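Inputs:
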Amino acid sequence: MSGSSFGSIFRITTWGESHGPGIGVVIDGCPAGISVSEADIQRFLDRRKPGQSKYTTKRSESDSVEILSGIFEGKTTGTPISLIVRNQDQRPRDYGNIASLFRPGHADYPFTEKYGFRDYRGGGRSSGRETIGRVAGGAVASLLLKELGIRVQAYTKAIGPYSVPEEDYHMSEITENVLYMPDNATASKAGEYISSLMAECDSCGGIIECVAEGLPAGLGEPVFDKLDALLAHAVMSVGAVKGVEIGDGFAASASTGSKNNDPFFSEDGTVLKKTNHAGGTLGGMSDGSRLILRAAIKPTSSIARTQHTVDVNHENAEIKVLGRHDPVIVPRAVVVVESMTALTLADLLLRNMSARLENVKKVYC
Amino acid sequence: MSGSSFGSIFRITTWGESHGPGIGVVIDGCPAGISVSEADIQRFLDRRKPGQSKYTTKRSESDSVEILSGIFEGKTTGTPISLIVRNQDQRPRDYGNIASLFRPGHADYPFTEKYGFRDYRGGGRSSGRETIGRVAGGAVASLLLKELGIRVQAYTKAIGPYSVPEEDYHMSEITENVLYMPDNATASKAGEYISSLMAECDSCGGIIECVAEGLPAGLGEPVFDKLDALLAHAVMSVGAVKGVEIGDGFAASASTGSKNNDPFFSEDGTVLKKTNHAGGTLGGMSDGSRLILRAAIKPTSSIARTQHTVDVNHENAEIKVLGRHDPVIVPRAVVVVESMTALTLADLLLRNMSARLENVKKVYC
Amino acid sequence: MSGSSFGSIFRITTWGESHGPGIGVVIDGCPAGISVSEADIQRFLDRRKPGQSKYTTKRSESDSVEILSGIFEGKTTGTPISLIVRNQDQRPRDYGNIASLFRPGHADYPFTEKYGFRDYRGGGRSSGRETIGRVAGGAVASLLLKELGIRVQAYTKAIGPYSVPEEDYHMSEITENVLYMPDNATASKAGEYISSLMAECDSCGGIIECVAEGLPAGLGEPVFDKLDALLAHAVMSVGAVKGVEIGDGFAASASTGSKNNDPFFSEDGTVLKKTNHAGGTLGGMSDGSRLILRAAIKPTSSIARTQHTVDVNHENAEIKVLGRHDPVIVPRAVVVVESMTALTLADLLLRNMSARLENVKKVYC
Amino acid sequence: MSGSSFGSIFRITTWGESHGPGIGVVIDGCPAGISVSEADIQRFLDRRKPGQSKYTTKRSESDSVEILSGIFEGKTTGTPISLIVRNQDQRPRDYGNIASLFRPGHADYPFTEKYGFRDYRGGGRSSGRETIGRVAGGAVASLLLKELGIRVQAYTKAIGPYSVPEEDYHMSEITENVLYMPDNATASKAGEYISSLMAECDSCGGIIECVAEGLPAGLGEPVFDKLDALLAHAVMSVGAVKGVEIGDGFAASASTGSKNNDPFFSEDGTVLKKTNHAGGTLGGMSDGSRLILRAAIKPTSSIARTQHTVDVNHENAEIKVLGRHDPVIVPRAVVVVESMTALTLADLLLRNMSARLENVKKVYC
């Protein structure tokens, strides 16, 4: 109820602060019998850990995961899977000056208004390190999806104004550049753009796109828990995300029905669509085609420029946010968006199992 | 769990199909002592009911609400409020041809895949009439918000390509044109655009904007149930919504930190912001400034043109969706978006009450 | 959150007051494809409706159910099933004197303390009529259970001090006496006992036993949502229930491990137990043997004797609760306990579907 | 959904197996501003840890708690509190023989049926060590209750047939005997009884009683989440509990309305009751008087006698459960029942805050 859990059946609960002993997640409701190792989870965590390139914070964290429960002889047992990552590089001195000031663009002010005070060390619970729990959970969700033939992949569509149009996508290039863009050429220009902003103590944002393939039709619950609605919840809950769209998204609002409707056709008895403006959902349920979503990421709020602000006594003040900050959070957030998508799909797959009496009988009769 | 409920403490559960006996909602968790009358709720329902202008369906429904429980002597009692709207104009013959065909852009195909069959009468549970329950619930949520000095208002920002820029907003004009736009001049052009599409048996979409004023800082739960995340869930769960953004939204992804950060300042001890790119949320919590969100609405899927599709036996076919359909759903969806926003805020206000021991003591000590 | 819902996947939400327009339930999460008719539900409601014998209230209610949604062509569609029973015999004059007095044994006083005031007409939301929603929901749950070969049956084990020992059970006699006891002889004595209490304006309670057969092993979730824990929650939530036990229950607390443990044995590869002190659950999960639970029902609180009490101004006063009250609620509560058991089992069956990857694959692969 | 969480607002999620790296709990929804130290939690854990007397297992565990998050400078911050207890004495050899056998009275058989296999080391997730998370959570809940003037206390009412009648209660003696009975004399006899059973490789159970004082009237939600219903859920979810009753409980079923109703009276404007057969609840809400509940604990299932059973291949077999087992679990379960009661009350106190508009305004206006 305090919002540290996500999912109904496949459900994660995260905990931990930036500068406390560690960060963790408890995954409840994972089916028994899935092979999971620490290495499987570490692979996901390594995609978000700091220090991967010159565009990420210099904070030094190995982000090594330890499995505390729920796995026996290499397989999930059906009981809660508890995972922990110990914090290592906690340099509290970097954050001394923000104890009494509210950083613009950060949670400091509303956090203090909500709880009466806050753990001011490195953003506390509102730090980007909070996403470690999401990614560790997403790694396990992805293993479940893989067992069912479903693949989720996120990548950087745009950094600031540098966007890759769909016709230039080269999916194999995603892992070839540190920005995780599907086009090395755009990534190169975007890198120069980031460097120029770094020189000015400024920052930028971008757009992450995520696709899922292999989904059966019918995932998502018709009214409030539509597939799109839960994805929007999941992705918008990631710090720095300011917008979410499915398929053509905002562009669809300026289209017409005759262009935006995706005509169905049948091929060997399989129902397919000639286009996919909908991005894989109809009436809030998966339609069997490729799921496509996009998340708008705002520019990193922590910048080393002098900004106007107020202090905890509500006096006017100035602040320069020092410390080790990413000039752009997008590349490290790619795996976070992918994880939130995987978690949403895993949960909806389990929720959907009881949609028909026929399926209930498959399990029990 | 099947997704017919929304909210944690202030929680609605909706039910009903387009062509069944009626549509309804049960509101659980509404505090006792709020004055609520059928007229209060009817005022909201009248804003979404059909037949308000030449741009809306000709289906004739009075959409009269009956209060079945939870109100005693004009006040909420704290027990569940059950509301029902009986369907009147059920012309099943209009929908006969769609029983065996999957309409492009509609839930028909995934619904059938999910449940094995579907109530094909007028979209069944996936009909736009489903939103009646949301609006009735939103009316009650709005009365609670009003008691706390909070006002929510939605309006049409754009119809197809006709968008009102913020500098041209005339909020008093919203109720002066049938499209609920804050600029009569743009509304007039948009109206002509819709008329031209109607002549071609085509349809369009648009953008709805919603603002909330009077919110205390600190609403929203820090990690998964951020204010923005729950708003995204709420609004994206409305049929036809394909994107949601908060504040500058997607535009923020192309901005820089130095421009996008909203500097704080203090005035008579009150913390204010010089700009509001964030749209009223920081770290997933309200920051005390104006909340702003936008929803992208796709063009109406029901068009009277011949479209390619498949039938329930997965054979290729053609379909012309006859019946009484809105050429644009945006004007009637305005109150739906406003209702979903009000429901989200009401719930978060109640959830936030126990954030501090100090507040718990205010109630019990 | 205000407690008007029960269940996680198969979930009911009830509403309604004793003297309002009606009482109802919304069932969400019921699998599609189950045959349900109004007659099926009516059969359950008739078992709890007033006026069945001289031991029940004379309030005249037909308690006729109307299906408002979720059923199409005789089958559940997977969407919420909304059921309503209109109140008919609302004689507010009977309850006039209790508007300002707190009836001993009733919810009047804490209700007023909680909400600030109450709907004093016939107990309002705390009336026994509230159980109509439970029974209507239980009827649908029972139809699902029946499809899976599971049968639930409740009956009266004891009325006041008149208890039927297990060795005297004649299950066929349950429907032969108005008290639903499995022994006509004991029922006859219990009937005389009730008559004598009625003559003295007094009332009594009793014990309801409920058994379920045909359950697969493994239902129930290991820690907090154990089968026994959810059954205890379900049954204790029925007004007037003051105790719940499973298997030998309280008697087990005075036994020893060597006597109380049920030895396993194998017959044709099937695991069976030589005894069933456990009542069908081990470690909070069904063990494949017969589930047995008992509920202790307190004596009816409404008695026509003069009792000491206080009024809404906290002044000392006297009260005689007139009106039409059951001298014993047990016989009418039998179907309520059976319904709550059925609802709990239906929900746990659906929850258990995703316990193993193997079962997830049965549905999707 | 897999049942590892308890509570709605004040919500705990537990994890961990008997012989894995450790056991833990995440507490979400705890108000900010409560003083909590590791010592406060340790005090609760020490009451359930093994090795306290000759009647408890010889397993050697210090059960030292570490706070991983949610506390800053000695106070709760409003964010999730993560607590861990590392397992130390994991002697897997003791449990080797049970890997292939189903122990009578244990979860082994249904666990295997549910998940396909099980972590057989010491009961895995179904071990009594699972309650560590409950007790650590209960310690924090109790600190919240204390801030509001509410005190919860559990003790042993009966061991096997040795029960302390209410008239012999000496509450100060509870901490004077290792069985936590409110009468040293009975405790002494009960001790001899346990010793005699130990000599015969047998075990016994008992009854735990729990009282709470200082509760405001009105806690509990009227229909499904009644105070008694949630307490029954909470307490019955503890392994080995086979029955729960409130107030006179099962005895009330044999009483009459005139005796069982508790008359109200007013003293200086305060509403009091002359008797408390109800045990502090009316209509599922606290009535301001002392809350009383009892839990029936079955005899320890692990006994070193030869018992009939079956193996994982469903072949008949014999088993002698060796290892370090408590001959009676009751004394160590006292603090578990107290913790579950505290957790339930803490949650209902927070849930009740929004029952009235008046209270909502106390927080916001």
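Residues 5-364 of chain B form a domain with the Chorismate synthase, AroC fold fold (CATH 3.60.150.10). Flag for discussion at group meeting.
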